[in-house]
Design brief:
- Keywords: Heme, Iron, Metal-binding, Monooxygenase, Oxidoreductase.
- InterPro entries: Cyt_P450, Cyt_P450_B, Cyt_P450_CS, Cyt_P450_sf.
- With 411 residues, this protein is α+β, with helices and mostly antiparallel strands.
- The chain has 16 helices and 11 strands.
- The longest helix has 32 residues.
- The mean pLDDT is 93.
- The structure holds protoporphyrin IX containing FE (HEM).
């Protein structure tokens, strides 16, 4: 099929009304017509087949750092535009964009410390969810996104890190600002917000690391300064950048997972009835939401050598975007892929990517979503959409899928 009939990069984001409303029509067509697609405007390959996406993200030799992409890779080069030159790469960007050996040096100890915090943090998540629900107790109608889905991940990651409660408002604003780092189409105002937020986070994290070094507490700031004191080769700048990355990576995405799950349950009453009859299936509900409506549409890699995907040659330094959303609805992998079915037995979805860069926050996101959704429907068993006819209000951030608002009635 001629490439002019295939979607360009914008037509694969919610900025395009057709994709915003029916992304799977676009992705299904692309997968069946050109599953290994070289998009000319952005100079990148786009993969939509489950097997290709999985093999690519799991390939431990692939690169991630946008600086390694060829000049034609517009999308990657724009992400690299803000790269600081003359400093070690690990002092200027988080693990999300780093390659080994820096990636492994920083990610492994951070992941161990984070997983230990998550493993003992369930009661804290329950407390945070319950207090969000308490605030809604007497509200007949409310916006579930702003009142529930947004505050929970921020409060949870703040508690894990050890952020002061009174700084949470600023934290929310900074988190929204720094997420623009992953928006290749950001405008001047968004770039300004991103830079202001980065500076504010740097100052705050610098203060917190100094404070915890002197007087450790039961939190992740203290875990990391302790490891550093014990000889872990990680600088203060690296710590700051990567602890901030937990806010960037974790807040919007987990907000969207909870919002997408609740909307799906409210628009699929039979599936909600299954959860209400057997609350023990909450894990399956969250996994099916991650498959069916993943909060992150794509991730990327850069070929570190000449390879072949689906019979197409891809050369060293060429950019590869993988559609996690497309992979999750591939009929070769999932039977009846466009059916939201919480009774599915097998969920090998790719919502968290894979390989060396697989989402470091996946266990936390899963726990927050499981606790949040269960407790929401326990507290408000008659929860419903205020206007079931209203089309979903998808946010316009490229490559993320979440709702701007979700008006619900609790009683
Ligand atoms: C439902 C919620 C979430 C989704 C859908 C999600 C999705 C993703 C995806 C797709 C990647 C890229 C993986 C790859 O390229 O193979 C990623 C990486 C990452 N995520 Fe998440 N994420 C979520 C929650 C979180 C949370 C809660 C945190 C922090 C606490 C977090 C922090 C990160 C970080 C730091 C990375 C970079 C990891 C690396 O490159 O080594 N994410 N996430």
């Amino acid at each position: 099929m001629p490439s002019e009939q295939l979607p360009n990069i914008f037509e694969l984001t919610p900025l395009d009304p057709k994709f915003r409303e029916a992304p799977h029509q676009v992705l299904d067509d692309l997968r069946s017509q050109c599953p290994v697609y070289r998009e000319p405007a952005a100079g990148t390959f786009i993969l939509t087949r489950y097997a290709d996406v999985r093999a690519t993200v799991s390939d431990l030799e692939m690169w991630r750092d946008p600086l390694r992409a060829e000049a034609a890779a517009v999308f990657q080069r724009r992400l690299a535009e803000t790269a600081v030159t003359g400093e070690p790469r690990a002092e200027t960007t988080s693990i999300l964009m780093l390659d080994d050996p820096d990636h492994a040096r920083i990610r492994q100890p951070l992941a161990r410390a984070l997983y230990a915090r998550v493993a003992k943090g369930r009661a804290n998540v329950e407390r945070i969810v319950d207090s969000a629900l308490d605030r809604l107790e007497n509200e007949p109608e409310f916006d579930l996104m702003s009142e529930f889905c947004v505050p929970i991940p921020i409060d949870v990651i703040a508690a894990i890190l050890g952020v002061d409660h009174e700084r949470l408002g600023e934290f929310r604003d900074w988190s929204e600002g720094v997420i623009q780092a992953v928006n290749p189409f950001r405008d001047a105002a968004q770039t300004e917000h991103m830079e202001r937020s980065r500076a504010a986070l740097t100052d705050y994290f610098t203060q917190m690391l100094a404070l915890r070094r002197k007087a450790p507490q039961d939190d992740l700031f203290s875990d990391m300064t302790r490891l550093q004191a014990e000889g872990l080769p990680i600088s203060d700048t690296e710590l700051r950048i990567n602890l901030s990355a937990l806010l960037v990576g974790g807040n919007l995405t987990t907000t969207d997972l909870i919002g997408n799950a609740v909307r799906l349950l409210l628009t699929h009453p039979d599936e909600l009835a299954k959860l209400q009859a057997d609350p023990g299936i909450i894990n399956a509900v969250v996994e099916e939401t991650l498959r069916y409506d993943p909060p992150v549409d794509i991730t990327s890699r850069i070929a570190s050598r000449d390879i072949e995907v689906g019979g197409c040659p891809i050369k060293t330094s060429q950019s590869i975007l993988v559609s996690l959303r497309g992979a999750n609805r591939d009929p070769e992998m999932f039977s009846d892929p466009h059916r939201f079915d919480v009774s599915r037995k097998h969920h090998p979805h790719l919502a968290f990517g894979g390989g060396a860069h697989i989402c470091i926050g996946a266990p936390l996101a899963r726990m927050e979503a499981q606790v949040g959704i269960s407790r929401l429907f326990n507290r408000f068993p008659n929860l419903r959409l205020v206007d079931p006819e209203e089309p979903p209000a998808w946010r316009m951030l490229p490559f993320f899928r979440g709702l701007q608002h979700l008006k619900v009635s609790a009683h």
